[in-house]
Amino acid sequence: MHILKRPRRLRLNEQMRSMVRETVVTPKDLIYPLFVVEGKGIRNEVASMPGVYQLSIDNLLKEIEDVAKSGINGVILFGIPDNKDERGTGAYAEDGIIQKALREAKKEFPNILLIADVCLCEYTSHGHCGIVQNGKVLNDESVELIAKTALSYAHSGADIVAPSDMMDGRVYSIRKILDQNNYTDTAIMAYSAKYASSFYGPFRDAANSTPLFGDRKSYQMDYGNVNEALKEIEIDIEEGADIVMVKPALSYLDIINRASSKFHVPIAAYSVSGEYSMIKAASHNGWIDEKSVVIETTTAIKRAGADIIITYYAKDLVKWVTQAGCV
Ligand SMILES: [Zn+2]
């Protein structure tokens, strides 16, 4: 006997819908990115990212306190030094901005996961992610300094180091130097499939890290490629990455999905500055509803397979999903 199928039964009301909902964003999925600057009492709003600030350490600590209260597990820190040079020495200096921030934050908030982004681009005068010679970004020389930076962050209190440079062999070198120095518990979250994306524009505003010449296409990935992403992720896992990342998120849901089906490590996705700014701008103009769009896009990132989502909307999302009764 033919029975008319009525899938709408399960969509009848919110109680029914929420009972059968397959993917729900929770505070524990989220990581909140923060930008740290030298000085005191500083809270500079980033022009292209309304609601995102460059914070001096005193204000950073207040922000982390808020994050801790909201139920978010961790923050990822980006440093903006006062001085930059050819070799990015501020990245691995004992009194570097991130080193100081980590020491203070670890002391005050031992239970918040402190993730330190590891790269040289915020610290180099040319704004590239490594050492430049004759207009080329050198790989192995850069990796040496990147590993040194990761060790210095671990030493200052980072629970997780997150190399974002896309040099070959950095995960191997970081794992090796951490283990040699007894930081066997410091995890590595590798920016494994990081695409050369035009969605990074506002971040470079926030971190003062726009390259002075050329672009990053000789180390970040070509957005036409999937196999290359899977290869990069595989290599990073072999080299010792505990968590692998796909960046950006929204235009790369297929990559997140492929990665989560193929590999058995947690997958992080970074919903980047351009994704944030687009939603901010459109909602500011009244063209879309910010809250619903953010919940929808973040749910899509999780549905695609992300276990961890780094987003500038983390704090708002916690409020919104809690209000909506989704957690
Ligand atoms: Zn970089």
Task: Give a structural overview.
The chain is of the alpha/beta class and 327 residues long. It has one domain (22-323): TIM Barrel (Alpha-Beta Barrel), CATH 3.20.20. The chain contains eleven helices and twelve strands. The protein has helices at 14-20, 57-70, 97-108, 140-156, 170-180, 201-207, 227-239, 253-262, 273-284, 290-304, 314-323; strands at 30-37, 43-46, 49-56, 74-80, 113-118, 131-133, 136-138, 160-163, 187-194, 243-247, 267-271, 308-311. The strands form two sheets. Strands 1-4-5-8-9-10-11-12 form an eight-stranded parallel barrel, surrounded by eight helices. A two-stranded antiparallel sheet has the order 6-7. Helix 3 (97-108) links the parallel strand 4 and strand 5 (113-118). The longest helix has 17 residues, at 140-156. The N and C termini lie far apart (41 Å). 46% of the residues are buried. The structure holds zinc ion (ZN).
Question: What is the fold's blueprint, element by element?
Answer:
Elements: H1 14-20, E1 30-37, E2 43-46, E3 49-56, H2 57-70, E4 74-80, H3 97-108, E5 113-118, E6 131-133, E7 136-138, H4 140-156, E8 160-163, H5 170-180, E9 187-194, H6 201-207, H7 227-239, E10 243-247, H8 253-262, E11 267-271, H9 273-284, H10 290-304, E12 308-311, H11 314-323
Parallel strand pairs: 1-3, 1-4, 1-12, 4-5, 5-8, 8-9, 9-10, 10-11, 11-12
Antiparallel strand pairs: 2-3, 6-7
Helix pairs in contact: 2-3, 3-4, 4-5, 8-10
Bound molecules: zinc ion.
